[in-house]
Design brief:
- This protein is mainly alpha-helical.
- The protein has one domain: lambda repressor-like DNA-binding domains (434 Repressor (Amino-terminal Domain)), CATH 1.10.260.40.
- 60% of the residues lie in helices and 8% in strands.
- The chain contains six helices and two strands; from the N terminus they run βαααααβα.
- It has a two-stranded antiparallel sheet with strand order 1-2.
- The longest helix is centred in the middle third of the chain and has 11 residues.
- It is globular, with a radius of gyration of 13 Å.
Length: 77
Amino acid sequence: MELRNRVKELRARYSLSQGELGKLADVSRQTISLIERGDYSPSILLALKISKVLKVSVEDIFYLEGENKNDDENKKV
């Protein structure tokens, strides 16, 4: 499974540039660009900072490709 994200989509919701989001999350614009392209997996700390800036949970931003939320619910039996 591969880590995917919705950073670009959620960043657009707040009309933030990569540089602005980077500044708010205390990283470079290049780091945000790498995350959006899927070329960099952020640390837990950075994922939490990004989720705080974008006002959504980490799970709403980052997910595993092919993961189905229903699969998780079925495992809770």
